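To whoever is on call:

I kicked off a structure prediction for a single chain this morning and the downstream step that reads the tokens threw a length-mismatch warning. I double-checked the sequence; it's 358 residues and nothing unusual in it as far as I can see. Pasting both halves so you can look.
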Amino acid sequence: MGELAVAERPEVSRELSVPPAPARPPRNLMLDACRGLGSLAVIWVHTIIDSPKLAKTAALARYGTAFFAIVAIFFLLHGISSKPDEGFWAYAKLRFRRLYLPFLVWSVIYLLLRTVNRAFVVQKEPVHLNIQRLFMGTARHLWFLPFILLAGLACYHLRAVLKRLHYGRIAIAIAAFAAGFIIANIRSRNFPRIEHYTGKFIHNAWMFLPGVMWGIALASIYPLLPRKFTKTPAIAFVGLFLLLGSLIWLWFVSELPFIDTRSVPSLPRNISGLGLLLIALYPWNSPILVPIAAFGRTTYGIYLVHLIFVDSFELLMKRTHLGRQWWLEIASYVVSVILSLLLVRLMRAWKGTAWLIP
């Protein structure tokens, strides 16, 4: 009798088949490039705001902060900036860690720098500390991080509302745009009974609240816009028209000397930010955008560190009695941009400081 053939034992793979992760959409170089332009604009304003010769040109760079406010809310609600199902508390924890903790550390850093400066260079009283510094910070630009944190938390639940709506989005867009327009036309009043830094935060927040509202409006209506508009240069041309028109408007109406944020009208300032966002939404990934786009990917880091260099050069000009020479201010701007970029990249390269660069 022949031997029975025994089939070989089939090999069973112990590895579980894992479905591939969904492909991440390609990075929009135009968006990164516009972020870079926004950062350059903010540094320019902070460099020449008190310049006898160049202060007027600040009007042409007022789009930066408004752009960043609108961008943050638009991408929160449009579903690109965060995981869609993470939940409010997970989102709040993430944003607190990413925005507020670096804000606190940078407040300490700027406090130490200003204390040393006042003690050994300009012989002034130490920086006044109070509870309001917890949302104003110890440098004139840090207020924006708590502001954008609070704005994001306040708008978060609109994500679920917008997902359930289709044409109902139109009503939300109209209401949000109208609210932003009304707020932009109401000048923030003085608060004589409120502590100085609280009043300053209110002025700043009121200035860019229309941008938050228009971020809601654009995120609401954007999915309903025809692709012939959103995927073609048409959206960029509309944005360019808004940007250039509002900057020309700002050139003629901005008040000099600059006293506080109310010296610049809110309506054209926020329109300029909206215009730059529309330009950024056009998916143009040309190689010519690569350098400025690379700079734009360091946006928050550049924002946080640039005053270290801007204020240092301003102090140097005063101590050397060179005065506010326009050519020195341009040189200060260029060197501040370069040094800020180098510092941000250096900090990102080391794990111990990378978390300080959102």
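Update from on-call: the warning came from a stale cache, not from the record. Cleared it. Sanity check on the structure: DSSP finds 15 helices and no strands in the chain.
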